[in-house]
Amino acid sequence: MAKKCRVRKKNGKRCEADAQHGKPVCVFHDPSKVAEGTRARRAGGINRNRSAAVLPRETADIPLRNTQEVSGLLGESINQLRRGQLDPRVANAVGYLASILLGALQQGPLEDRLSRLETTLGIGGNTPKERAAHVNTTIPGSN
Ligand SMILES: [Zn+2]
Known about the structure:
This protein is an all-alpha fold and 143 residues long. 50% of the residues lie in helices and 0% in strands. The protein has two domains: 1-48, no CATH class; 67-137, no CATH class.
């Protein structure tokens, strides 16, 4: 008899599908076969309302204060996805949000550098509007 898929559904019951040969999960829970699984479910009409695989509620927050920590989250999520612990849709959302966060984290240091540069050049203002006005009109050597 074939081994059963090791995945537990959200309701605590085990997935009843047979595991694939040489893999611990069935075709429906294999992240690399999500598209095929979707087709197979559609064809067979099985388990249409499968909920997304997510991490347990008690999973600790990952600090996301700098690009290294965000990279850490991405690395961890990629491995969870590969192990089938994270639904590809969740991993997709994590990737999307992480890329926004990376952009925001990189913006901060850039603004600091710009403001130091402006101070050095003596063109800094206190508000972005003031800064913009200075930058547009009084860049040394521009006229
Ligand atoms: Zn399964």
